């Protein structure tokens, strides 16, 4: 408002001459402009101080925090934190504690890979395991568990088991047992023939079925004419038919079942005694031959065979152990505790803090600063115009000599 009034008075007003000046002359316009400059100085200095402090704070936060989070390897702030919070000293303390526990400390001549916060951040972005991110191999190498079978004596015990295998001389049948088997071979079991049972035990014990005869007797009894003497004959025929049916059910049919079972038993016994051979004596001779061959194989090649089987068993057992150890090593070093989800949280916090808060904050105060910069030429112009407007015209009347 002061600037507008100053410009209006300066443009439209008369130049002051000191004699009957108007209220809105160029001098008044100059004073309005200087009053506006004074107000601008009061507000400009306060706003400029706030803007500078806010913009510098935002820029410092952007440079020290946001840029460090995005590019940790090129950040002096991360290097300072690494120097102040030296993680390698903590790792040395952990290594000392591990030496007192059951875990074996790394050899002193082993090269230790120093850990830095920047390396942790980059490794976590690569979705590596916690073992790789924190470089836990500095104080315990997971590869050392491959030596567990040797350290805990598993391999030594398996080798001792193979070396201690001794197969003594074996005698399956002594002389007395062979003699008894020879007596059995020459016994009457050699004369057992099953076909005689099959030939003699026919499927029909009676030549005709007794039930059929009984039915015929009943038919004849039904055809006998009635009469006093004929009734007695009719009753006798029916009684005989009843007896025949009873014999068929109670005697003939059970005997037929027992005959079938006896035939099956004789056939099975003949096959069992001969072991599928032509005679019982031949089966016994082959049995003795197989026993002698087995005894010779055990005594000659038994040691080698048992050692080979034991070696295959122990090798398979060791292979299972090493396979499990490889699984533990692979899972621990590459899969357990992957840092990808934590990296996603880290990136989300970075975007939410830097891109959504810090960048708009800095942009706002940068805009305010450019707006305040416009006041600088305004102040200079107002001072120049005020000086120009304050000049008065010379006295227009005649000069009087003193």
From TrEMBL:
UniProt keyword terms in alphabetical order: Glycoprotein, Membrane, Transmembrane, Transmembrane helix
Residue intervals passing through the bilayer: 36-61, 364-389
Membrane topology label: Multi-pass membrane protein
Localization, UniProt: Membrane
Top-level taxon of the source organism: Eukaryota
Record-level GO cellular component terms: membrane
InterPro entries per record: Prominin
Similarity annotation: Belongs to the prominin family.
Protein name, as recorded: AAEL015593-PA
Species of the source: Aedes aegypti (Yellowfever mosquito)
Species classification: Eukaryota, Metazoa, Ecdysozoa, Arthropoda, Hexapoda
């Amino acid at each position: 408002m002061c600037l507008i009034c100053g410009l209006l008075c300066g443009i439209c007003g008369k130049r002051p001459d000191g004699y009957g000046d108007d209220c809105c002359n160029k001098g008044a316009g100059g004073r309005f402009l200087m009053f506006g400059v004074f107000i601008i100085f009061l507000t400009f200095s306060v706003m400029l101080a706030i803007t500078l402090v806010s913009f510098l704070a935002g820029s410092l936060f952007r440079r020290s925090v946001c840029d460090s989070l995005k590019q940790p390897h090129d950040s002096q702030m991360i290097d300072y934190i690494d120097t102040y919070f030296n993680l390698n000293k903590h790792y040395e303390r952990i290594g000392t504690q591990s030496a007192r526990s059951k875990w074996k400390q790394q050899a002193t001549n082993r090269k230790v890979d120093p850990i830095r916060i920047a390396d942790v951040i980059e490794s976590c972005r690569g979705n590596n395991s916690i073992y790789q991110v924190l470089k836990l191999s500095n104080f315990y190498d997971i590869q050392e568990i491959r030596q567990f079978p040797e350290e805990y004596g598993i391999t030594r015990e398996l080798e001792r088991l193979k070396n201690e295998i001794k197969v003594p001389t074996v005698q399956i049948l002594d002389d007395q047992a062979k003699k008894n088997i020879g007596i059995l071979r020459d016994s009457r079991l050699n004369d057992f023939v099953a076909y005689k049972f099959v030939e003699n035990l026919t499927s029909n014990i009676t030549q005709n079925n007794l039930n059929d005869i009984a039915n015929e007797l009943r038919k004849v009894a039904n055809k006998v004419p009635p009469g006093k003497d004929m009734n007695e004959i009719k009753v006798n025929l029916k009684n005989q038919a009843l007896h025949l049916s009873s014999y068929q059910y109670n005697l003939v049919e059970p005997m037929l079942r027992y005959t079938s079972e006896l035939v099956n038993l004789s056939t099975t016994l003949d096959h069992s005694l001969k072991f599928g051979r032509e005679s019982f004596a031949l089966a016994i001779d082959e049995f003795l031959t197989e026993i002698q061959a087995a005894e010779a194989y055990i005594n000659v090649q038994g040691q080698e065979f048992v050692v080979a089987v034991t070696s295959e068993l122990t090798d398979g057992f060791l292979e299972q152990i090493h396979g499990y150890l490889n699984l533990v090593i692979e899972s621990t070093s590459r899969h357990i505790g992957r840092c990808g989800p934590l990296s996603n949280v880290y990136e989300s916090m970075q975007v939410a803090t830097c891109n959504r808060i810090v960048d708009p904050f800095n942009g706002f105060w940068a805009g305010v600063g450019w707006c305040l910069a416009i006041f600088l030429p305004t102040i200079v112009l107002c001072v120049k115009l005020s000086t120009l407007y304050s000049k008065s015209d010379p006295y227009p009347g005649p000069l009087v000599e003193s």
